[in-house]
Amino acid sequence: xxxxxxxWLMPExxxxxxxxxxxxxxxxxFKAVSFEPHVTxxxxxxxxxxxxxxxxxxxxxxxxPFFLQPKELxxxxxxxxxxxxxxx
Length: 88
Fold this sequence. Notes:
With 88 residues, the protein is of the alpha+beta class. It has helices spanning 13-29, 49-62, and strands spanning 4-9, 39-45, 70-74, 84-87. The chain is built from two helices and four strands; from the N terminus they run E-H-E-H-E-E. It has a two-stranded antiparallel sheet. The chain starts with a strand and ends with a strand.
């Protein structure tokens, strides 16, 4: 079985607390699973772990903090995409 890696952007602490509160309330209201607020950037497989660490290390050093602006709220047909927020 191949290793699969998911790359997430995580919000800063204040935004994380606010988003987590909304997610938790929706999870209770709709009898759904709560999850940690994040933006999924990519899911990859077939990459050597040491190469992955090198790439992520370079990205972490070279990337400045930035802000994402919500664009729209969409609803999908599958369980994992029941509702998702699209960013610019």
